[in-house]
């Protein structure tokens, strides 16, 4: 029987954005977790920034990455809760050409096993803009770990079957 040879891994070009009014880059364990995880998997970190929770600043930074040929994936941590300063969904939705509804749904489903009904307070979301996949997750390191290990690690690997996001991002 002829088996197809496994595909060669194609590293994605990823930017990480932490949205926080209180953390510094040195204290940003969530962003650092994402950076460490993506590089351990063989992906390329293109840029990393930490900004305050401001709708227009988030849109500005993310729009620059969306316009760049160098960034295929944006990982955003923080600003997805219900406090008055949590505005990541409001900042990102207008930028999306198409929303990835399943990301938020699956994130809440898998996080239910960890935090129970508190998962309903997560406004995790994702979408595509100009061939760039944008994934927004809560600001806790545990939430980033859940998103990475249970969703993103496989979905950002071109070898994952039956499907993954790599064919949908700009080359």
Concise overview:
With 171 residues, this protein is of the alpha/beta class. The chain contains five helices and six strands, in the order βαβαβαβαββα.
What do you see in this structure?
- The protein is of the alpha/beta class and 171 residues long.
- It has one domain (13-164): 3-Layer(aba) Sandwich (Molybdenum Cofactor Biosythetic Enzyme, Chain A).
- The protein has five helices and six strands; from the N terminus they run βαβαβαβαββα.
- The chain has helices at 29-40, 55-67, 88-92, 101-115, 141-155; strands spanning 13-19, 44-51, 73-77, 98-99, 125-129, 132-137.
- A six-stranded mixed β-sheet has the order 2-1-3-6-5-4, sandwiched between helices.
- The protein is globular, with a radius of gyration of 16 Å.
- The model has no long low-confidence stretch (mean pLDDT 93).
Approximate shape? globular
Strand content: 15-25%
The share of residues in helices is 25-40%
Number of strands: 6
The secondary structure category is alpha/beta
**Element-by-element helix/strand order:** EHEHEHEHEEH
CATH class descriptor name: Alpha Beta
Report the radius of gyration as a whole number of Å: 16 Å
Number of helices: 5
What's the average pLDDT?
A: 93
Number of domains: 1
In order across it, which strands form the biggest sheet?
2-1-3-6-5-4
């Amino acid at each position: 029987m002829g088996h197809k040879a496994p595909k060669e891994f194609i590293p994605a070009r990823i930017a990480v954005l932490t949205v926080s009014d209180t953390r510094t880059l040195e204290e940003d364990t969530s962003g650092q977790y994402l950076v460490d995880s993506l590089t351990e998997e063989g992906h390329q970190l293109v840029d990393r920034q930490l900004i305050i929770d401001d709708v227009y600043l988030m849109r500005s930074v993310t729009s620059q990455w969306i316009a760049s040929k160098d960034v295929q994936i944006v990982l955003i941590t923080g600003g997805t809760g219900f406090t008055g300063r949590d505005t990541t969904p409001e900042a990102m939705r207008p930028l999306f050409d198409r929303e990835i509804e399943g990301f938020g749904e699956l994130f809440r489903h898998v996080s239910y096993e960890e935090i129970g009904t508190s998962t309903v307070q997560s406004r995790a979301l994702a979408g595509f803009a100009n061939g760039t996949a944008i994934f927004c997750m809560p600001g806790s390191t545990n939430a980033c770990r859940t998103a990475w290990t249970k969703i993103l690690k496989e979905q950002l690997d071109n070898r994952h079957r039956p499907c993954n996001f790599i064919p949908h991002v700009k080359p």
